[in-house]
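hi!! sorry for the late reply, been swamped w classes. u asked for the two structures so here they r. pasted raw, havent cleaned anything up. first the sequence of the first protein and right below it the tokens
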Amino acid sequence: MTTETDSGAPAALREEETADLIAQFDRESNVRRFSGVKDYIVKGLLLLFTAYVFWVTIIAKLPEQIIRCVFLGILVFIGYILYPIRKSMTKRENHVAVYDIMLGVLGGAAFFYYAVHFEAIIARAILLKPLDIAMGVMGIVLLAELCRRVVGIPILVVGGGFITYAVVAGFSLKRIIHQLFYTTDGIIGTPIGVCSTFIVLFIFLASFLEKSGIASFFIDLANAVAGFASGGPAKVAVIASALSGMYSGSSVANTVGSGSVTIPVMKKTGYKPEFAAAVEAAASTGGQIMPPIMGAAAFLMAELTGISYPVIAVSAILPAALYFTGIFLMIHFEAKKLGLEGLPRDSIPNFWKLFKAKGYLFLPIAVLVGSMTLGRTPAYSACFAIVTAVAVSMVRKETRFSPATFIEALANGARNTIGVAMACAVAGVVVGIVSLTGLGQILISMLLSVASSSLFLALFLTMIACLILGMGIPTTANYVIMATITAPIVVRMGVPILAAHMFVFYFGIVADITPPVALAAYAGSAIAKSNPIRTGVNATRLAITAFIIPYIFVYSPSMLFIETTPLQVIQIVITSCIGMFGLAIGIEGYMLKRLPVFERIPAVAGGLFLIHPGLATDLAGFGLIALVVLLQIITRRRT
């Protein structure tokens, strides 16, 4: 049976267009394209890496130093094959420069050298041999160059700045190399440890789910639920992105994947290009805070805080729900203000028929959640979910995995791991220097002296630091750096450790839509052909709740289900939703009719009061919003 899409086109045609657009984004990135024999060779290397990951996860019992060094060694070699020195060289298909092969071999060899000799090197401690130092320098330099190719220059500026600080502080080259390359406090520290055991498996799971057609199913499901409503396509984008966030965990990937379908339809409905792209960017950014998978940084949070990942995922449910509720309400009132209609009923799939036909695609996610709920490790749960994804794909011919599709899913998962691993490795450099020099304690003392006893000021400074750092580096590295430096400050001021780390996590994520550098907004603007800065501004306005919610769960940890009761949770849900309503009508300037300034201000103020837990603020907020609603009803009846 052929499913009709929101535009009336067959689902198969829409999937082809989505694949073409994603391929175009790949071509415009700095990834080499291969065909023929060289494509098979590259896929063979990626499959070798995949086999290693599953071998060490399921079978092998090796020391952490060996697991992490071999993990990085293989990725460094493959990375130099895939990523040329300049973006312009990606146009030359099947061409790999000899020097790239040599650099890949040398970079990989440095990590394999440590893996082979790690017992002797540990025994020598800081008394490194000249060969040890040479290998360490070579490994760090070549890792940095690959990170520049894959992730970009800004993260290297941050890492280089910390290394420069260590040199200025008087630490010798031998001591720095030992700390960064030969201990588990540096490059092969916690970030790479989590990446090689948890994150990589969830990246593979996302790849398998994508190949199973779950993204198309989620968009059709969102159409069935909200496509008919006012401004339906924008609401479809929010629902589809929230569902995709359950397995993707990447704001840019979500924006490109679902935005290639939703953005053109939003523009056709009547939304301005900047607003259409902003809706998709803001909604897709929420994917990193959407349980059960969330973003890669959430797994690092579990390791750094000592709190199990299932507990973190459960704690993120209410903030994520409020985030998407806020965006949904903003879109609704924007549609009402512009007088936009929903999609024609005959172009919307029937919910029950759709769910009956493809509802089984939910099963891998259900297995993942169920397995972690029963106490299984995230790594085990991800492997079980991958097996389930392959099994359920066999139910229908159109979702069935062929050998080629299976190999492509594995290769894509391995390829997508490279960027995350490089970011984690450089984040390990920062953590290593902070540990070596005691810089963390110095920064903590400085910030405490500035903030004095003001928790709000400490939170505000942390927020600014996260947003600035997030302009140039990925969320994963942003979280690790800020969790190392600023989260302990917030914890010292009496905030629960989960709330403090979640605060840093949130603001590292919303940097993806915060101008002037907003990666998710830029991806959306490329599809909508809109102004990137205006798109970022609109996305920030739509996601305004993401800038408020972290302050709320710091001051009231009940929102994260910390030391709370069911009654408190119900109260927070009700008051926060009413608060979101007040913010939405105040910022959009429309409810039953346009709101004048003297109505918009109390609406926004009432929304902020209600989002902040507390009886006095709740009563004040409810009163202000009730007054605005009453004025709207009276003036609407008069006109």
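now the second protein. again sequence first, tokens right under
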Amino acid sequence: MLLLENMNLSCSFNETTGQPVSIKRGDFVIPLASFAFDFGCNEHMVNELLEYESMLEFRTWVLPSIRPTGKSFNCTPSSVTSDQEHVIVTYELASVRVKVSYSLCETNLRVDMELFNKGQQSLYLNACAFLLALPTVDLTFDYPANAPIGHFSPKNLAERVPVESGLINFTTHAALPGGDLDLVFIDPVEKWGCGVYRESDRSVFVYNAGLEMDLKPGQTVSIGSLYLLPVEPGKNPYLAVRNLVASLGYQPCTGGITDGVMYSCHPSGTMDTHFPLKDDLYQYAEYLPRLKEMGIDHVWLLPVFEHDAGGVYHSTDQSIIDPRYGGEEGCKYYCDKAHDLGMTILFDYVPHGPAPDFPIARDNPEWPSKRRDGSLQDEWECVSMDYNHPGYQEYTSELVHDHVDRFGVDGARIDCAMGGLSNWRPYADNRPSGNSVLAGVHITEAIREGFLRGGKRSFILPENFNPLPNYYHCTDLFYSMNLYRAFVDLEGLLHTDPAAFAEGLTDYLERESWLTPENYHKMRFLGNHDTVSWVWQSRRAVDCYGTEGAKALFAMISLIDGVPMIYQGDEDPSILGRDGESLTPFFKTLFTVRKQFIPRGSNRTDYIHTGTPVMAFKRVCADVPSDQYQTEGDSNIWVLINFSDAPCSVPDGVSGELLFDSAGESETLRPYSYRILRCKE
């Protein structure tokens, strides 16, 4: 038996097979069944543990699947070597040498994999999977801050039918009888799929990296890192992940704009009504005072750049403001009026690329990504730009800087910030699949740099559906699509079982709050231009939850941590050409209450489980002694929200001075109302 040991961990390995046998932390021992790997090589999975799946026709949002075959891992290592901190297991396959390295770190065991082409021909690689099996199904697992949002038991799963994460997932948490095990996977280059399945009496955890490349003779490639993090009983396993990620150097950026209330809109109207208004920015500027009065601080304009009949996200040239929206002068007028009102403006940049015959793509043939045959990659009838190309990065950064100079634009929502399609003619030594996560980070950095060059504070909102550590350093607001997916998972419970609805949200948000750094800020929403028109619910919040249910949820996203965003028309159905209650007075009150009472200088939200339809959480102020509170927003605050159509009691353990009740002061919480209390310290 081989041992790796330090002050915190003891890891044992079979000295013949190199297989990890157990990880021990304190008195907590986790037995391991096996570590296996599989990868696509020349259109065939080398170990046939997973089904082969070509990614050549994947769209940007599609993740590699987890499709187990039921076959066993039968690779015999050619060598097993060790020192005080490493065990290295080498496998000699027909054309590939695989090196699996186990490294003992302070509180975790790190697993890395390296592929070396020892043959004479290039090898077409497609996907690379890490598979860890535990010799038990007596556990539960979950994907914190991801979908699906539940807790799952392998023993309740059909054999080899995985539960796959809905979004790129870097953390899987397993609760074992004697403690917890976190699996953390971070790939700096490509996106990946994640899933857990049962195979007989074993639980198999899989991370499947979306590797795509031609590995040349004598060339080596490394694919991500898997961290096994045992957590002793009584310790918080989600906070352990946060601490691990911080120890790896992933820290949120600071100094940017991270507070306020956001409104997303377009002068022509909304996407779900097919842009019927046809206003220009001169006309639409007249709506800004109404937004300011309602409590809006930031306006995210959907693209107003020159575009063809394909729509606002099919820009011909993002340097030009489309004449139908008032052109350059109209845009300057709109931005100046917003600034006069103390509001900021975010442009919606679309870096994935224009139609192939438009000048940016046509005149820069090395910027668009290519298929294996050299033809243009395309998506939405547009080319897919290579975000890793320094020429395209500089073009994008300068485009942003120019908009700062011309219009005073304050920030950016970045469309398709998770990267583009694989580029089989990549710049320099990038691999084709590098035009994914790595490229998404690069284009986010480039856009952020454009604002910093112009002397603006960073205000960057990349359309990155997953709170990946890779993006921490260049993201001011995380695009909280994961919370929206939680709403989708729970939608049917609001009216059938409101207590289960409140518990599901509490459980999800509590895990998210533990997993992500306190100062990593999030944009919260019930719908955006995509979700109201063509994806997931394809409806407005009031249609999904009813008007009163939607109000309760709007209150929730406005009073937890983060920046609430409402989409054009949420405040007034007449904007959509519909009848119904105007919610403008509701939002005005809600946002006033938010600014008056919610603590400033802290992003911390603590949740309690009430077992009732009432959701309860505490907004915790920054580290300010109670005798130094300066304003009403300097004290810890309880927020209660009733998700039921019946009155509910105040939960046990919640008390304090009543500051606000949306339904008027009463002994009980009235249906769908929210209440704010100053905590008794």
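hope this helps!! also noticed smth abt the second:
The radius of gyration is 26 Å.
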